[in-house]
């Protein structure tokens, strides 16, 4: 059984050592860490070389193409690494010690032969110095896994934070190649697994310290039912509509074109009510 952890780096020097230490401190260590760098100009690769000299389970992947960004990096690595299970690793987080052990155990419990499977976990939201902001990302953003693992709701709101996910080979296979409409690798893979009626599981106990800082490409945003929250949404309506359009196009491709704008909007509104 082969487990691959995929790490995409880009100017990651500030936080990278903490992440790599957390991987080496896992209770389950029978994995290979694959690293693809996207053209860093800081000391990222020197740090990687230092850890590679100390540990025999780290491989640096050489890719002549640069500027793939996060989604492109992860999908390129998934395509070029053969394994039974895959995990995705952000360069600025800290993995709690049992993340790999618990994730692997859960996916092996739920998966069926030759069927795609995916497991995700909750996260602790922390600041740049690892001080807690929220003990649960799902609570912070009002995400309900029991609803969002139903494809009707999942097409309009993403539960599958990439750095928490583990997928099996069948899930990898049905997710490649990704649609040009894909917004991010995690939401694309999650939708593809749901569309194939695959096996979805989740671990409610957070397994990652999810660091929030000024350089985050994507991050945690508190959701509330306050008037101020919805007034802010109205003020930024143009960007919200653009995001919904982009997510709709991705979701439509993920489910094979069987999604109308009306049903997408209906289940988005229904989820907003239910959460």
What can you see in these coordinates?
- The chain is α/β, with parallel strands linked by helices and 275 residues long.
- The protein has one domain (3-274): Spore Coat Polysaccharide Biosynthesis Protein SpsA, Chain A.
- The chain is built from twelve helices and eleven strands.
- Strand 7 (124-126) and strand 8 form a beta hairpin.
- The model has no long low-confidence stretch (mean pLDDT 92).
Which characteristics define this entry?
single chain; 275 residues; alpha/beta; Spore Coat Polysaccharide Biosynthesis Protein SpsA, Chain A; globular
Write a concise synopsis of the structure shown:
By secondary structure, the chain is an alpha/beta fold. It has helices at 13-24, 44-54, 69-80, 99-110, 137-140, 145-148, 151-154, 169-175, 185-195, 227-235, 237-254, 261-274; strands spanning 3-9, 32-37, 58-60, 85-89, 94-95, 117-121, 124-126, 132-134, 166-168, 199-203, 208-211.
Which stretches are low in confidence, meaning pLDDT under 50 for 5 or more residues running? none
Overall shape: it is globular
Radius of gyration: 18 Å
Mean pLDDT, to the nearest integer, reads 92
> What name is given to the CATH topology?
Spore Coat Polysaccharide Biosynthesis Protein SpsA, Chain A
Tell me roughly what share of residues is in helical segments. 40-55%
Task: Order the strands across the largest sheet as they lie in space.
Answer: 3-2-1-4-9-6-10
| N-to-C series of helices and strands | EHEHEHEEHEEEHHHEHHEEHHH
Question: How much of the polypeptide forms β-strand, as a percent range?
Answer: 15-25%
Distance between the amino and carboxyl termini? 38 Å
Largest sheet: 7 strands, mixed
Class of secondary structure makeup: alpha/beta
The H-level CATH homologous superfamily, spelled out, is Spore Coat Polysaccharide Biosynthesis Protein SpsA, Chain A
CATH architecture identity? Alpha-Beta Complex
């Amino acid at each position: 059984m082969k487990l691959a952890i995929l790490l995409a780096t880009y100017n990651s020097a500030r936080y990278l050592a903490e992440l790599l230490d957390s991987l080496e401190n896992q209770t389950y260590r029978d994995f290979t860490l694959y690293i693809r760098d996207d053209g860093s100009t800081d000391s990222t690769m020197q740090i990687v070389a230092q850890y590679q000299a100390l540990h025999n389970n780290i491989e640096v992947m050489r890719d002549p193409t640069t500027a793939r960004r996060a989604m492109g990096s992860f999908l390129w690595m998934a395509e070029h690494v053969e394994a039974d299970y895959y995990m995705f690793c952000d360069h600025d987080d800290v993995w709690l010690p049992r993340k790999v052990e618990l994730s692997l155990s859960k996916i092996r419990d739920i998966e069926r032969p030759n069927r795609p499977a995916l497991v995700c976990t909750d996260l602790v939201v922390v600041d740049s110095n690892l001080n807690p902001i929220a003990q649960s990302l799902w609570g912070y953003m009002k995400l309900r896994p029991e609803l969002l693992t139903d494809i009707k709701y999942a097409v309009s709101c993403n539960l599958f934070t990439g750095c928490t996910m583990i997928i099996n080979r069948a899930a990898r296979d049905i997710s490649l190649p990704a649609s040009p409409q894909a917004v991010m690798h995690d939401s694309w893979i999650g939708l593809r697994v749901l569309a194939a009626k695959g096996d979805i599981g989740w671990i409610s106990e957070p397994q990652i310290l999810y660091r929030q800082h000024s350089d985050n490409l994507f991050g945690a945003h508190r959701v509330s039912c306050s008037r101020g929250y919805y007034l802010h949404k109205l003020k930024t309506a143009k960007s919200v509509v653009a995001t919904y359009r982009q997510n709709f196009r991705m979701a439509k491709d993920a489910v094979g074109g069987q999604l109308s704008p009306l049903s997408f909007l209906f289940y988005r509104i229904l989820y907003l009510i239910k959460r």
